[in-house]
Structure formats: C-alpha cells, structure tokens
Specification:
219 residues; alpha/beta; Rossmann fold; 41% helix; globular; binds flavin mononucleotide
Length: 219
C-alpha cells in the first residue's frame, strides 16, 4: 500500500514553545510505519514544501495547462495513494487551518474510496481530541473515511524528541503498540478498498461532483 502522512503545522514562531511540535508527531508516525509495516510505501507531506497562492485556488480550478507543478505533483501522489495519515495540532479546539487549507486544494475525486487515520496532538493534556472530532466530518466529506481508532498525543513535547523517537526509550514499545491499533485498521481498510476499487470502479456507480454545488441537492 502507498500511504501519505500529512503534517498539519506550518508554525515556525514561538510562543508557545516548542514550534512545530507536529514535526515530531508526524516523524513518530513515519518511524512506526517504516519500522513495523515495511512492506508498505510511506511518504511524509510537509505543507511548508508547498508554496500555495494566498488567493485560494484549488487544484481542480486550474486548466491542465496552467496548474502549478507542485500542486499537480501532490495531486498525482494523492491519486496514487491507498490511504492517508492526517496529523493535526489542536488550535482553539479545531483542526489545524494549515492542514485544512492544504487538503482543500484537492477534491474528493482524489481522496475518495480510500481510508484515513486521524492523529492529533497538543502541548497540553487533552492530546487534541476536540480537533479530532471535527476531523471526522472533514475527512468523511473529503471521501477518505477515517478508521475508528485514533491516535492522540497529549504533552507531545515530553513524549517525542525531534527525531520522532520516544523521549523515554522504555516507553517506545507502548507508543508503537498504541499507534499500531490505528495503523492496523488503516492498512486493513486500505487493502480492502484497493481490491474493491479494482473489482468495481466506484466512479461508474456515481460520478464526481465537478460542476456545481447544486449537483449534491435532493431532487
Ligand atoms: C493558535 C493556537 C491555538 C491553540 N489552541 C489550543 C487548543 O485549543 N487546545 C490545546 O490543547 N492546545 C492549543 N494550543 C497549543 C498547542 O497544542 C501547541 O502550541 C502545539 O505545539 C501546536 O502544534 P505545532 O507546534 O505543531 O503548531 C494552541 C496553540 C496555538 C498556536
């Protein structure tokens, strides 16, 4: 399976310290997947690598000839992927605006019929659970339904060092085991959905909505 990990923070300034705690959490996900699920292809997507136009223009709003290469390359990666790990901090009890902004650049035609895993974290004690609740709706609407298990990392600055390894080596196995419950579900669904996409193209059953929001309306 090809899995993309989306890092949800672009915050480089402080306070609050440390900045971009998300790097550690995304790397912890990457490390766990690479080490324990080595038969799968894992790639980390960092929103700071994408020079997005401040005037919002999603991938699907460009003609093929004018679409920026970076955006088109990421669209191709999303299309070729089988599942997604969405890593978000909690900002004001909501998911990261940087993650929402990046994902909003692509339609459900690319994400759809593939599973996702919700990973949230915070510097405080709740681990981003309130952001996670909203992420279920967001990711469901995007078409990449979240698996039931979720990963929440409270006080992430104490849990992981910058490499994504556990700060306390004795706790590494416990964190890997906790992460694995979600990743096992993600990969089970990714494999199942991949086989079913091959057996029956879902777009033959219902076409993508590309023209107008009214395409969603009840008759
Ligand atoms: C704008 C903003 C809002 C925040 N809101 C919350 C919050 O609602 N709940 C929480 O637990 N932490 C909150 N925090 C603290 C974050 O958990 C902490 O700063 C964390 O490091 C953010 O992740 P990042 O460093 O990857 O951006 C907030 C931080 C910022 C900058």
């Amino acid at each position: 399976m090809k899995l993309l990990i989306f890092l949800g923070s672009v915050r480089k300034s402080t306070p609050p310290k440390p900045a971009r705690l998300g790097e550690r959490v995304a790397k912890a996900c990457e490390r766990c997947l690479v080490e324990h699920y080595s038969e799968h292809e894992i790639e980390l997507i960092d929103p700071l690598d994408y020079d997005l136009d401040p005037v919002f223009k999603p991938h699907f709003a460009y003609t093929q000839a004018e679409v920026p290469k970076q955006l088109d390359d990421l669209a191709a990666k999303i299309k070729a992927s089988d599942g997604f790990v969405m890593v978000s901090p909690e900002y004001n009890h909501s998911m990261s605006p940087a993650l929402a902004n990046l994902l909003n650049h692509f339609g459900s035609s690319l994400f759809g019929y593939k599973p996702s895993a919700i990973v949230t974290y915070s510097a405080g004690q709740w681990g981003g659970v309130r952001a996670a609740v909203g992420m279920r709706s967001f990711l469901s609407e995007l078409g990449c339904l979240p698996v039931s298990a979720m990963i929440h990392v409270p006080k992430a600055q104490d849990v992981f060092i910058e490499s994504g390894d556990a700060n306390n080596a004795a706790e590494q196995t416990s964190w890997d085991s906790y992460f694995s419950r979600t990743f096992n579900q993600l990969i089970w669904w990714a494999e199942g959905a991949s086989k079913q996409r091959e057996a029956l193209d879902p777009k033959q059953l219902s076409k993508d909505f590309k023209r107008d929001p009214s395409q969603r309306n009840a008759p």
